[in-house]
Design a protein that fits this description.
The chain is α+β, with helices and mostly antiparallel strands. The chain is built from 15 helices and ten strands. α3 crosses α6 (187-206).
Length: 421
C-alpha cells in the first residue's frame, strides 16, 4: 500500500464526533470517508492510538475499536491489491473500495467471499501473481495440490450443509479428518489437505474476512507421520550406472543419476540444459536457480554426471515427463536386482498397516534427492553445505529426511577430531 491510512474524528455541532478513515497517497491526494460510527464526545478519542478511549462514558468503546481493527485489515489489503494492479490509482478507486468495505455499495454482498469462494480465488489469483508469503506465483505442483484439496473440502462442505469461516471448530476439524480417513487415505495425504486449508484460513484472516482463530491452535495440526522412504547407496547407484538399457530407459536412468549426484529436485534436474553448465577454474558446475525456492545454486559436477553430459554432447539428457521417469525407474531397478525387501508402515483410514515391497518397487525421482543427501552426509560433507542444496531450514528436519542408520551416524561422529585426540 502506498501512502498512509489513518482514523480520525470530525467534531459535530451536537457535541458528538463522527469517525473517519483517511487515506493520503501522493501530493494532494487524500480521501476522507465516514465509517458511519459516532462517539458521544471528541474527548473520548485517543488521537495517538487512533481509537476510542476505554472510558465508562463511552459504553460501546470496545465494540467500536473491534470494528475499526477489522476494517483496517480489509482496507489495507484492498489498497495493497489496488496498488499492485494499478500503481497510479485515483481517489475515485479508493472511494469505491471504501464503499464496498463499509457497505455503501450495491455490490457489497460480494465484497467478502465465503470460504469456498476465497479458496477458489486464492488458487486462480496466485497462479499468476506473487504470493504474499513466497513473493512468487504458485508452482504447477502446488496449484494441483490446492485444487485437489479444494475438491475434497467442497465435498465435505456439502455433506455438512455448507461450511464458512465461523463454522471452523475443533469438532469440525476432527470430523474432516475422519471424513478423509473413511476413504482410506494415509495420514500424510490427509496432512496435505489440512495444511492447504490452514493456508486459506490464514490468508482470509489476514484479509479481514473473519476473526475466527481456531485454525491457529496447536491442536489444529497436520496428522503427518514419518514414513521410511528409501535411498540408494553408492554401490546401488553404480549398479544402475552399469546397466545397458534401451534409449528411453537410459535417459530416465541418466536423469535420475544426475539428481542423485546433485541433490536437485526433479523439477530442476529434469529441466537442465546446456546453458546450465559452467566451466570455472578447470571444473564443470551446474548453475541453476531452483524452481521451488528461487535459490541460485552452483553445484560441482560429480565424475558420474560428467560422463553423462559427455554422452549427450556436453549437455544434460533431454527432458522427460515425471510419470514416465517413475515408470521406467521401477523397471530399471528390477533389472539392477534391487530386490531388498522393505517394510513400509502407514496409517491408512486411521489404522496402522504394514506392507512389504521390493526396493525397486519404491524407486521414484525423489529417491535421487534423498540418496544425494544421505550419501553426502555419510561421506562427511558438512551438513550446512548439504542443506544449502537441499533447502532444509533446520538440522532437525534434515536429520529426519536423510536415511543414515544409527550406526552410520555413530561412525561418522566417531571420526570427528573430538573422539580422536
Amino acid at each position: 500500500m502506498k501512502g498512509t491510512l489513518n482514523f480520525s474524528i470530525r467534531k459535530l455541532k451536537s457535541g458528538k464526533a463522527s469517525i473517519q478513515v483517511i487515506h493520503s497517497f501522493g501530493r494532494g491526494n487524500e480521501v476522507r470517508y465516514s465509517t458511519g460510527l459516532y462517539i458521544d464526545s471528541a474527548k473520548h478519542w485517543n488521537y495517538e492510538k487512533q481509537r476510542v478511549k476505554n472510558v465508562i462514558a463511552q459504553s460501546n468503546a470496545s465494540n467500536i475499536n473491534k470494528f475499526l481493527n477489522l476494517k483496517v485489515v480489509k482496507i489495507s489489503k484492498a489498497l495493497e491489491d489496488l496498488h499492485f494492479e494499478k500503481p497510479n490509482y485515483d481517489r475515485k478507486e479508493v472511494k469505491k473500495i471504501f464503499d464496498l468495505i463499509f457497505g455503501k455499495s450495491k455490490t457489497v454482498s460480494n465484497s467478502t467471499p465465503n470460504l469456498v469462494e476465497c479458496y477458489k480465488w486464492y488458487i486462480k489469483y496466485f497462479s499468476t501473481n506473487p504470493n504474499p508469503y513466497t513473493k512468487r506465483p504458485l508452482s504447477n505442483g502446488t496449484i494441483r495440490s490446492f485444487k485437489t484439496s479444494l475438491k475434497k473440502f467442497e465435498i465435505f462442505s456439502k455433506k455438512k450443509g455448507g461450511i464458512d469461516y465461523e463454522d471452523i471448530t475443533m469438532e469440525l476439524y476432527q470430523d474432516f479428518i475422519e471424513h478423509l480417513r473413511a476413504q482410506d487415505y494415509s495420514n500424510n495425504y490427509i496432512s496435505n489437505h489440512i495444511k492447504n486449508l490452514k493456508t486459506i484460513l490464514n490468508y482470509s484472516f489476514s484479509r479481514g474476512y473473519h476473526t475466527n482463530t481456531v485454525h491457529k491452535r496447536r491442536e489444529f495440526a497436520k496428522p503427518n507421520e514419518s514414513v521410511d522412504a528409501i535411498y540408494l547407496n553408492a554401490e546401488e547407484l553404480k549398479q544402475l550406472e552399469r546397466l545397458q538399457l534401451p534409449t528411453g530407459q537410459e535417459i530416465s536412468r541418466d536423469l535420475f543419476l544426475i539428481g542423485a549426484y546433485t541433490g536437485l529436485r526433479v523439477s530442476d534436474f529434469n529441466r537442465l540444459s546446456k546453458e546450465n553448465l559452467d566451466y570455472l577454474g578447470g571444473k564443470y558446475y551446474f548453475k541453476i536457480e531452483t524452481k521451488k525456492t528461487s535459490q541460485p545454486l552452483l553445484i560441482p559436477c560429480h565424475p558420474v554426471t560428467l560422463k553423462i553430459i559427455e554422452k549427450y554432447d556436453f549437455a544434460p539428457p533431454p527432458k522427460k515427463p515425471d510419470q514416465h521417469i517413475n515408470r521406467d525407474l521401477k523397471i530399471i531397478g528390477k533389472e539392477a536386482k534391487l530386490n531388498e525387501e522393505i517394510e513400509i508402515t502407514k496409517t491408512i483410514g486411521g489404522k496402522r498397516k504394514t506392507k512389504t515391497y521390493k526396493k525397486h518397487q519404491l524407486l521414484t525421482t525423489h529417491t535421487a534427492r534423498r540418496s544425494f543427501c544421505t550419501n553426502a552426509y555419510k561421506a562427511g560433507m558438512p551438513t550446512l553445505d548439504i542443506m544449502t542444496i537441499s533447502g532444509h531450514q533446520t538440522e532437525r528436519v534434515f536429520y529426519e529426511y536423510i536415511k543414515a542408520s544409527s550406526l552410520e551416524r555413530a561412525k561418522r561422529i566417531a571420526e570427528h577430531p573430538f573422539f580422536n585426540d
